[in-house]
Design a protein that fits this description.
Strand 4, helix 4 and strand 5 form a beta-alpha-beta unit. Helix 3 runs parallel beside helix 4 and helix 6 packs across helix 9. The N and C termini lie far apart (65 Å). The protein folds into two domains: 128 residues, NAD(P)-binding Rossmann-like Domain (Rossmann fold), CATH 3.40.50; 80 residues, DNA polymerase, domain 1 (Orthogonal Bundle). It is built from nine helices and five strands. By secondary structure, it is an alpha/beta fold.
């Protein structure tokens, strides 16, 4: 059976790269995109079927699916790469119009796609869905990005020294939260540390050794001898 792959946001970037690889693997590719000119150019380059769509609009998605069924057949693969990043700013300064647009495209749009494609996949008894999120234009620091094995971040070192990791399940979130917190509050009290970690829904979120580890790291980052 030939796979028929819908790739949203397929006119450029990650979506185009996914479409290109799927094409190489023998799939029949259908590009869904909002940018008509870029869509036509990408489809021509890849030998794919172009379908213009606004994924934030259910009527547009429904029409796109009907066009896909007529021109290509029942989709067995969906790669959703359509999305927007929005501005970089604090929540209290975030423009409401931008927020609503992001939610309509990135969240509601994803719901529309799944609502449209899943019934078709169920009819043929087969399907694969990949939902892609991009942080283009954003800065993201993971636990691994804080330091290295030979040169760990003060927080990583302190958590190991004080055996504050507990089960390890929530360690990444707690340590990266603490890193961001110490950038804003380099000389915190124990109560302030507990408050900063309290957002983690984990019974060890304010465990005493974790608080001590954050305090020790804060001292080292200030240059205190400890």
């Amino acid at each position: 059976m030939e796979d028929i792959a819908i790739v949203t946001g397929g006119a450029n970037g990650i979506g185009y790269a996914c479409a290109e690889r799927l094409k190489e693997k023998g799939a029949k590719v259908v590009l869904w995109d909002f940018d008509k000119q870029a869509l036509e150019e990408a489809a021509s380059s890849l030998g794919a079927v172009p379908v213009h769509v606004d994924i934030s609009n259910w009527a547009s998605v429904s029409a796109a699916m009907e066009e896909t069924l007529a021109r290509a057949g029942v989709p067995t693969i969906l790669v959703n790469s359509a999305g927007i990043a929005g501005p970089n700013t604090l929540i209290e300064d975030y423009p409401l119009d931008d927020w609503h647009q992001i939610m309509e495209i990135n969240t509601t749009g994803t719901f529309h796609l799944l609502k449209s494609v899943l019934p078709e996949m169920k009819q043929v008894g087969y399907g694969r869905v990949v939902l892609i999120a991009s942080v283009a234009g954003k800065e993201v620091t993971t636990l691994e990005g804080l330091g290295t094995e030979s040169s760990p971040h003060p927080l990583q070192a302190a958590f190991i020294e004080l055996q504050a990791l507990q089960c390890g399940y929530c360690a990444s979130g707690i340590i990266t939260t603490a890193a961001a917190f110490l950038e804003e509050s380099p000389s915190p009290t124990d109560d302030e540390i507990k408050q900063a970690l309290s957002g983690h829904l984990c019974r060890c979120g304010a465990q005493p050794r974790m608080v001590k580890a954050v305090a020790r790291a804060a001292g080292r980052m200030r240059g205190d001898k400890s």
